[in-house]
Amino acid sequence: MDGRGSTGMLSLAGAAILVSASVDLSGVYPATLDFVDEEEAEPLEFECEQGDVWSLTSFRFDAGDQLELRIGPAQLVVGRHEGNALWAVVFPERAAKIQSDLAGDGEQIHHVWLRFHPARIGELFPARTVRGPGREGMHVWGHRVYNRKIWRVWSKFGLPIVPRRNALIVDIDTVDGVRRHFSVDLDTQRVEYKTNYVAQGLPAPQAISRRDAADVIDAAWLAIDTRYPYLGEKKDLGWQELRKDFKKRATQCEDRFDAAVAVRGLLEQLGDDGVWVRYKDELLPGFGRGDFTINASWAGVNNILGSIRHGKHAISWAKTPHDIGYISLRSAASLGSVEEFEHALEELERTWALIVDLRYTRNGRSELAQRMVGRFLPEAVVYASSRARIGGVGYELGASEERKLEPSGPWRYQAPVYVLIGQGTIGPGEELALMLLQAPGAIAMGSPSAGMGLSVDWVDFHTGYGIFMPTAVDFDAKGERLYGRGIQPDRTIEAEEEEFDEENDPVLYQVLEEILKTPAEGRRPGHADEPEPPTEEG
Fold first, then answer.
1. Cβ contacts of residue 310 below 8 Å, gap of 6+?
2. Domain shared by 416 and 474, yes or no
3. Rounded distance, CA 126 to CA 346, Å?
4. I need a surface site. Which of 5, 141, 211, 490 has the fewest CB within 10 A?
5. In this predicted model, which residue has the larger pLDDT, 191 or 292?
6. Residues 277 and 308 occupy one common structural domain
């Protein structure tokens, strides 16, 4: 962007590498998807990476007096699903204004968000206007706009669906933070302006000085340098040189969000997809760890089990006709969760096997989880250990600190416990799993957990900025490192993603089959009547 630019954004790597040949985006993003009635349409996961950023010589849209856009050089960011372009954002590099008799005439454009049919990509951006690869880091801005604007129009559950071929959304934010949302029928050229989006744009650009931007980089670098436990393993990283390099890049930042993008670029050098950056309440896109495949179908679970009771604090429970108990423990983050769990356990005390489903569990607090799991333990036990950095002493790790569990509650559940895990078992969910697996005879089934470990947290390193990262190296009770590896199931259950549907959950089904193989004489209730203690007489 020119000088101190009109849009409040600036590349962190200087000018894009431009090629003289034009690029036909209809060839880069061949359209294979078509419109499906909204009730039947599947929400589409998307990708948007550095390779989806393009430099434009210009962008034009003309619907007569209703809406006309004449933008000069710009950056284009494309979101795609299996090669199909689903959305795009145009970021002007020079001042450009809305021309419209409907709304916003003369207002300066910050960006233009476009939703369109995949087959329209080449019409919207003719090859003669696409110069080549775009500026580094602009895909992060694309994600930022997506997160704000994907909802309500041509979307399901926060994911895009394919619009009709004649439909086009032109959603413009101005540099003053005003949002102008236009809906266009490309067949009739009719434009409709929606007034209910005006105050729902991105926050207005917040300028940052070169010194402040460099300070943000310094603070992020220092947080990693003193807290990140795996830095000593990355001896070829050139960590000191990266500090200088990214402080220099930060001098080009115009907006406070730009500084967050710069921090993300610095952290990307760690090669750790479990590290994330936050600016205020906005989470910047990660480096790959976010795409978890959940080995579960909640609809399938409900269909298999039939009658399920749902609490108010993320706990659900059921009992099968064969007296097998089931508890879905999606959170251990509140006292209400603990109380619901204990209530469920009381109702299931006479079951002869218990399934604890942690495949959706990613929230929780250690002290509350310990109260829950203590109901399964006959004695105190170590379930994990952690080693953190020694502050100010190189990159060495300190002594191992054990994580312990104590028995709790008026009685202990003694029947076999089957712990269901998978990629959706994340962080606090992994800690819960490790705790439960200390119960006598407990077995983990499913697929490996996410591998986020136990000691992951947000580190606020500068006003408005935070890094989500591991703060210690965690080990399970056997001394196996957890981060990046996860908890390995005692029995892996293989199932294709399409097998998890509204009627079936292959993991739960196979676990129930396994449990039912237990002979009748081997089935004992979870809470058996305890014999009276012997008297002195005998």
1. 316
2. no
3. 66
4. 211
5. 191
6. no
d(CA 445, CA 512): 11
- In the numeric block, the tokens 């104590």 are attached to 406
Q: Is it the case that residue 365 has pLDDT exceeding 60? A: yes
Note down the domain range covering 464. 206-291+386-396+457-478
Identify whether the C-beta of residue 5 lies closer than 8 Å to the C-beta of residue 109.
no
Q: Helix, strand, or coil here: 213?
A: helix
Give CA–CA dist 364/197, Å, rounded.
35
Same domain, 191 and 80: yes
Could you tell me what percent of the chain has a pLDDT over 70? 93
Secondary structure in 3-state letters for 174-189: ECCCCEEEEEEECCCC
- 170 shares its domain with 226: no
**Structural domain contains residue 14:** no
234 and 172 together in one domain: no
If asked whether residues 372 and 390 sit together in one domain, one would say no
| Identity of residue 22 | S
Number of domains, the chain: 3
Where does the pLDDT of residue 317 fall: very low under 50, low under 70, confident under 90, or very high at 90 and above?
very high
- Strand ranges inside 142-286, DSSP E: 155-156, 159-160, 167-174, 179-185, 190-194, 276-279, 282-283
Contact residues for 130 (Cβ-Cβ < 8 A; gap 6+): 22, 23, 24, 25, 54, 55, 56, 57, 76
Does pTM surpass 0.85? no
